Amino acid sequence: MSIPADLKYTREHEWIKDNGDGTATIGITDFAQGELGDIVFVELEPEGTAFSKDDTFGTVEAVKTVSDLYAPVDGEIQEINEKLEDDPELVNEDPYGDGWMVKVKLHDESQLDDLLSAEEYEDVIA
What we know:
The protein contains 4 helices and 9 strands. It is an alpha+beta fold and 126 residues long. It has a single domain, classed as CATH 2.40.50.100. The strands form 2 sheets. It has a 6-stranded antiparallel sheet with strand order 1-2-3-9-8-5. A hairpin with a 4-residue loop joins β1 and β2 (14-18).
């Protein structure tokens, strides 16, 4: 199972990558997609949607369950991964690459400091 060191994580199994320009990319972890099983549908809030930390920004539907996606920080959706409409299994195949969910404009970059490091996330799922 992969847990890239350059990302931050939540206890709800989302990852976030600081893009360095006031934006970040968010997805679900390799652990999460493995627990969900085969993902058949991803529904995301539209571009322009503002949210606060811990708000729901979408859902992931697998064969046996539906799981909410929780925002790790305050922000606004700037881009959704439209590939997931036709290819939701990208989340299973490449959760940290082609399977990303949304790109957001960060409202408070300091919130990234409150998230889990790769080592801390590894302890959560151990």
